[in-house]
Amino acid sequence: MLHRDRQVRIQVYQFIDGGLFALGLWLAWLVRYNWHGLPIRGLDHVDQIADFGAVYFWLFLVVIPMTPLILESQGYYERPIFSPRRQVAWELAKACTISAIGLILIQFMLRREGQQGARGVFVLFGFCSFGLMILKGEVLRLAYQSKLGQAQFKRRIILIGTAEDTQLLRDSIGPALQELEIIGEFDLNKSPLENLVSFIHDRSVNTVIINASHTVLSQVEAAILACELEGIETWLLADFFKTQISRTSLDDFFGRPVFVFHSGPETPWARLAKQLVDLFGGILLLALFALPMVVAAIVIKLTSEGPVFFRQERSGLNGKPFVMYKFRTMVTNAEQLKQELAALNEMSGPVFKVTKDPRITRFGRILRKFSIDEFPQLLNVVRFEMSLVGPRPLPVDEVARFDDVAHRRRLSVKPGLTCLWQISGRNNIKDFAEWVRLDLEYIDNWTIWLDFKILWRTIWVVLLGKGAS
């Protein structure tokens, strides 16, 4: 099914499931205290209801948003509608167990005097929720399998394309065939368009899927226009360009539809969230590290000749040069000495790394060990030249010496203070190709939560001075 249809369906299910788990909590309380007419602490029925409101009702605010997230973590919403019952029951059992344990822990941590909930209620909550979710699943199965449900939810489709294309499409649809009914196949290269229109009339088709890989575009256009006149929804598969990495999305360019092929993070809201985290996180860290930075600057000035800061042109987003700031940790003529030390380079590829670099000052080694020399790059972050998390920026001359064009894809996002390379061994990694692989792994799997995870792990790497030199 279309991604947008799946998203709407999942959101509706999540809303229902949150309500069912909340109902499960109420039923658990009802069974625990009223199954045999047992009162709570000798209170009458009116007081029992009040007690439920004081002790358990606030947990609805936890259960309703929490349980759909737990179900999603178990892959519950990604499965086909008619998944095997054993698989569904296993996913639900894990989700209900996690939910029950979660409520016990939350109740324990946020307990209030005289308002402790019984653990038995939370255990019963897991069983009640499991039963309600199984019941909901069976009701949905019956609804989808009924004649009314089939007429309402199942799409009657025609596949347009060559025999080879349509067979590949059938194979890729797989389990979704339970939600689709393929009425027929049509090859525009062999049959006239009039036959397609007649077929639509005769079989009450409501969706046409066109695979244009081996079909002339003028014929595709004619088929789309014919379906438009019939009021039939048409899906045009956009895989006629065989990209290896890029993902495809449809957008609008001044009123004209365009296919967008992108290999980096694409979600606008996620990108905006990353920028906000960079801005406010950078300002917060600058304020937090202001005193250590002042102390470091004074010590650098007192212990070695030369400026406090080291400035160098680095390659930023899409290779655009920018001036990156660091605390100076080397002697002033470090760049000239670099040529003499070229034979000692321990890193493969265009990058220069030496474990015990003789150009580093005594205090500079301390700054590098705990990454204090990187603190001034927070200025680059708040100026939107860098991000808190992203591939490390390389000098412009090193980027120009990339021997593999594919390595330039690491420039498709803003460079950052830390990334997977920093938390995966740092200077212990001697192969530049492995460094790039980690950067591309970050780009291909980026989420805002991955950024927070990397930042958290970076804190411990910095405090312990792992992999620094």
- What ranges have pLDDT less than 50 throughout 5 or more consecutive residues? 36-50
Q: What profile does the largest beta sheet have? A: 4 strands, parallel
Secondary-structure element order, as H and E? Answer: HHHHHHEHEHEHEEEHHEEHHHEHEHHH
Strand order of the largest sheet: 2-1-3-4
The helix count comes to 18
How far do the termini sit from each other?
52 Å
Mean pLDDT: 81
Strand content: 5-15%
User: Quaternary state, please?
Assistant: single chain
Rg: 31 Å
Spatial shape: flat
Number of strands: 10
Pairing-aware structural class of the strands and helices? alpha/beta
What is the helix fraction of residues, given as a range?
Answer: 40-55%
Protein traits:
single chain, 469 residues, alpha/beta, 4-stranded parallel beta sheet, two-stranded antiparallel ribbon, 18 helices
Explain the overall architecture.
With 469 residues, the protein is α/β, with parallel strands linked by helices. Helices cover 53% and strands 12% of the residues. It is built from 18 helices and 10 strands. The strands form 4 sheets. It has a 4-stranded parallel beta sheet with strand order 2-1-3-4. A two-stranded antiparallel sheet has the order 5-6. Residues 36-50 have low confidence and may be disordered.
Secondary structure layout:
Layout: H1 3-34, H2 45-55, H3 60-73, H4 85-109, H5 119-145, H6 147-153, E1 155-160, H7 163-173, E2 180-186, H8 193-203, E3 207-211, H9 217-230, E4 233-237, E5 247-253, E6 256-262, H10 268-288, H11 290-303, E7 309-315, E8 321-327, H12 334-340, H13 362-369, H14 377-382, E9 387-389, H15 396-400, E10 416-418, H16 420-423, H17 432-444, H18 448-464
Parallel strand pairs: 1-2, 1-3, 3-4, 9-10
Antiparallel strand pairs: 5-6, 7-8
Helix pairs in contact: 1-3, 1-5, 3-4, 4-5, 5-6
